[in-house]
Recover the amino acids of this structure.
């Protein structure tokens, strides 16, 4: 069985594409199909990476998407419902969901255009305009075609995705008021309770803690650090082994079952607690790269300034957060 036929259920074969308009229709259909929820996004990113391992960003996106699912399900787990009211938890979920939906809506057409360009051996990057892809990314895809720098393209996609969500999510007045000023967000942001972790089947967690999440530069720097960790020569195969053998469910049991001494989080399966959320873009987002200058430091290759193995530290932070929640519960009962 050849590679293309193996992925046939995931993407229509290029032989079925009749016209550029037909291809545009296919891309829109598949983007809508796989942008259904966190689970479908995670799987789509991973399948795409297996089809095109040169697009390293797609593996990074799949692993970060797993973390987004765990964060969503924490809101329905054993701890947060005790101290965070239902409406605030709903707002927090919508923030995760909206940001990840917007990123997928922007990037998946780019990935599919590259896929069909590769399969059909035809120039197709002009179709990026049909999906309102930023001038920045249009230039970066052309640069990738000419130079083949996989790491540069990965960094470019990190830069793009964080700029895509900057105004409609991070700077949106509703999210700023109802999410980024909440007690939970303050605790996670200032005390490093929230981290992006890459698990292994050996029971270890690697990754980086999130701080100053609201700052664009910080989120891009985090993305660059995470990409460096994920593709670290002696770790990459461990992360890939976990990804290929562990179905994403949104529950932290995805990795807790491999770990010793993992604290109980009680996170449920995502699709048992969340339905499909319909999204709409009410006003055109516009091209962020026409409004903001691309900074040279965004392309700096990350250096490891801290240990990347987080297993003990991460579980300790989870226990600290659980203790704070218990204290909060006691004060509420008095």
């Amino acid at each position: 069985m050849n590679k293309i036929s193996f992925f046939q259920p995931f993407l229509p074969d290029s032989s079925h594409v009749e016209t550029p308009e037909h291809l545009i229709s296919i891309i829109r259909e598949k983007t809508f199909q796989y942008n259904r929820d966190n689970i479908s996004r995670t799987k789509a990113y991973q399948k795409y990476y297996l089809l095109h391992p040169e697009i390293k960003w797609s593996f990074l996106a799949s692993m970060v998407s797993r973390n987004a699912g765990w964060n969503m399900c924490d809101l329905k787990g054993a701890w947060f419902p005790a101290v965070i009211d239902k409406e605030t938890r709903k707002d927090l979920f919508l923030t995760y969901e909206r940001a990840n939906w917007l990123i997928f809506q922007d990037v998946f057409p780019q990935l599919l255009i590259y896929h069909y360009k590769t399969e059909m051996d035809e120039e197709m990057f002009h179709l990026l305009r049909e999906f309102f892809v930023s001038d920045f990314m249009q230039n970066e895809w052309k640069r990738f075609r000419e130079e083949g720098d996989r790491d540069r393209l990965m960094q470019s996609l990190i830069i793009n995705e964080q700029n895509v969500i900057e105004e409609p999510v991070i700077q949106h007045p509703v999210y700023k008021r109802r999410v980024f000023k909440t007690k939970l967000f303050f605790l996670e942001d200032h005390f490093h309770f929230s981290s992006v972790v890459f698990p292994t089947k050996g029971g270890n967690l690697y990754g980086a803690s999130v701080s100053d999440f609201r700052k664009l530069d910080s989120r891009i720097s985090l993305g660059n650090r995470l990409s460096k960790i994920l593709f670290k020569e002696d770790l990459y195969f461990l992360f890939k082994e976990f990804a290929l053998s562990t179905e994403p469910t949104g529950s932290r049991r995805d990795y807790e079952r491999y770990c010793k001494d993992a604290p109980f989080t009680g996170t449920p399966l995502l699709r048992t607690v969340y339905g499909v959320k319909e999204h709409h873009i009410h006003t055109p987002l516009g091209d962020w790269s026409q409004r903001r200058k691309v900074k040279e430091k965004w392309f700096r290759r990350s250096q490891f300034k801290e240990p990347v193995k987080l297993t003990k530290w991460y579980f300790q932070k989870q226990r600290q957060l659980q203790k704070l929640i218990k204290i909060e519960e006691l004060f509420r009962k008095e």
Observations:
- The CA atoms of residues 4 and 241 lie 22 Å apart.
